[in-house]
Specification:
mainly alpha, cytoplasm, Tektins, Tektin-like, Tektin
């Protein structure tokens, strides 16, 4: 193409020459055929080949552009599809996490109620044990006083046996109450551990929800896929 522009410029310059042109001159080389010159047929054949080559390259470029457009469109569709899949996964995860957090919070409320009831039960057991002290003192005091009966009056009468039975019964009741108190206090410790575990799990769920909903999803709102 560059040669054709050069030849066109030379021929145009030649057509503009006339007898009074300032840049005309004599030369011995003008009246001969150059050895490297070509015939009009060869020139036409060369030009036709260049045209065909250019046409093929143009068609190849068109095909390449079509393939590139197809690849770009497929890439866009794949990215958009994956983007939508990830968004849906976030939505499902956030919903699942929210339900789990609500369930944990509901269970925590019940555990706190159970802790309150258990603490009240422990107070009642402690009070019941305390209230057994006075009857035990009375029974033991009576028995001690009766050991001071003189001589033959120190008799193992029914009253004495009844006092012994009463003291034993009070001891059994106190022992049972103390066992119940120990069980209640152990249960209370378990409930408190459960409460702490639930509160920790709820905080983890809150942080996860914040990261997924308030950070990741918000950032993804600024992602835009432009179809070209």
């Amino acid at each position: 193409m560059r040669d054709k522009f050069s030849a066109l410029s030379i021929d145009k310059n030649c057509t503009e020459l006339h007898n009074r042109s300032p840049d005309i001159y004599f030369t011995d080389q003008s009246a001969k055929i150059e050895g490297n010159s070509v015939t009009p047929g060869e020139w036409q054949e060369f030009s036709d080949k260049n045209v065909l080559k250019a046409e093929r390259e143009k068609n190849a470029a068109i095909n390449l552009r079509s393939v590139a457009d197809g690849v770009l469109m497929q890439t866009y569709n794949d990215l958009k599809k994956q983007f939508d899949i990830v968004n849906l996964a976030f939505e499902n995860r956030i919903e699942e996490m929210g339900k789990a957090k609500t369930k944990l919070e509901t269970h925590l409320i019940k555990v706190k109620e159970e802790i309150g009831e258990m603490e009240a039960n422990i107070d009642k057991l402690k009070q019941a044990i305390y209230e057994k002290q006075a009857p035990m003192k009375v029974s033991q005091t009576r028995s001690d006083h009766r050991t001071q009966r003189p001589n033959i009056e120190l008799c193992r009468d029914p009253v004495q046996y009844r006092l012994i039975s009463e003291a034993n019964e009070i001891n059994v009741n106190v022992t049972r109450l103390q066992e119940l108190l120990a069980d209640a206090e152990s249960s209370l410790k378990g409930l408190i551990r459960n409460q702490l575990s639930l509160e920790e799990d709820i905080e983890i769920k809150k942080k996860s929800l914040y990261i997924d909903h308030d950070v990741c999803v918000e950032h993804r709102k600024h992602i835009q896929y432009v179809r070209r």
